[in-house]
From TrEMBL:
One of its GO terms (molecular function) is oxidoreductase activity. SUPFAM superfamilies: NAD(P)-binding Rossmann-fold domains (SSF51735). It comes from the Bacteria. The keyword Oxidoreductase applies. PANTHER family: DEHYDROGENASES, SHORT CHAIN, SCP2 DOMAIN-CONTAINING PROTEIN. The lineage of its organism: Bacteria, Pseudomonadati, Pseudomonadota, Alphaproteobacteria, Sphingomonadales. This is NADP-dependent 3-hydroxy acid dehydrogenase YdfG. Keywords: Oxidoreductase. It holds the Pfam family adh_short. Residues 7-189 form the Ketoreductase domain.
Length: 287
């Protein structure tokens, strides 16, 4: 018996790149798949590949940033397969520029896909899951939203927003059996074509899908509200932590705070260690 026999998954931005790797992996594990992509030819080609290998899949070419596009994802799943158990919000674009060179259209385009698309796609499917026994939703974040990246203030803002969305929805979904994850994939795709050749070799696209399969299957138990980064031969959890801090005096001043900072009571110490602890498939722990 395959890992996801009887399950139905919806994946946005799945006609090419890492989304396509996801739907291949989901289908291999027995899931029926709704392949969403704004490019019709790419979506239909992915469906043909899955069906040709004995899987079940249908195409959806809606704009996930529009409310009607998000609603159509649920409709496609119900019409073709009668249910939906898994949603992977993977669709994304880049419109990179330093802030003073970034036009409003570049900002709005990224927010339309990454945040409005997150809302539009998730709301109807979350509602269906709420009324029908639960499910798993995986949203896509990025290191650009966690530690930042030059020229990606729009993308970084959106991807950090994804984490806030997921954390809040994990609380809402807990009593309905709806689990939420963030995945931060590191993979060589069209969006990373500008990266060095060494990156393209190391971050092979198929090395992220096993993490996704873990998230959406029974293997991850009842875990929810967590963020995993995956790619290049490692997987690691990202968590935001609060410093122990200190209790100010009754006549608290900025100078007092400066002294507390200097004494190491407020801010985390600067260090050169890696910013994420990772687990390599070889068993070696890094960071």
């Amino acid at each position: 018996m395959a890992l996801l026999d009887g399950k139905v998954a919806v994946v946005t931005g799945a006609g090419a790149g890492i989304g396509r790797a996801y739907v291949r992996a989901l289908a291999r594990e027995g899931a029926a798949v709704v392949v969403n992509d704004f490019a019709r030819e790419a979506a239909e080609d992915a469906v043909a590949e899955i069906v040709g290998q004995g899987g079940r899949a249908v195409a959806n070419v809606a704009d996930v940033g529009a409310l009607e596009g998000g609603a159509s994802l649920l409709s496609s799943a119900l019409e073709a397969f009668g249910r939906v158990d898994i949603l992977v919000n993977n669709a994304g674009i880049l419109r990179d520029a330093s802030l003073v060179k970034m036009e409003e259209a570049q900002w709005d385009a990224v927010m339309h896909v990454h945040l409005k698309g997150l809302y539009s796609a998730t709301r109807p499917i979350f509602g269906w899951m709420k009324d029908n026994g639960g499910g798993v939703i995986v949203n896509t974040t990025s290191t650009a939203g966690i530690r930042g990246n030059f020229g990606q203030s729009n993308y970084g803002a959106a991807k950090c927003g994804v984490i806030g969305f997921t954390n809040s929805l994990a609380i809402e979904g807990r009593k309905y059996g709806i689990r939420l994850w963030n995945i931060g994939p590191a993979a060589a795709t069209a969006l990373t074509a500008h990266m060095p050749e060494e990156y393209q070799r190391r971050f092979q696209i198929d090395r992220v899908a096993p993490t996704l399969l873990y998230m959406v299957s029974h293997l991850s138990g009842d875990q929810t509200g967590k963020t995993l980064l995956a790619g290049g031969g490692w997987v690691g959890e990202v968590r935001f932590e609060v410093h122990d801090g200190y209790e100010p005096s009754d006549d608290f001043t900025a100078e007092e705070l400066a002294r507390a900072v200097a004494d190491g009571k407020v801010l985390f110490p600067d260090r050169d260690a890696k910013w994420v602890t990772a687990y390599g498939p070889s068993g070696k722990r890094e960071g």
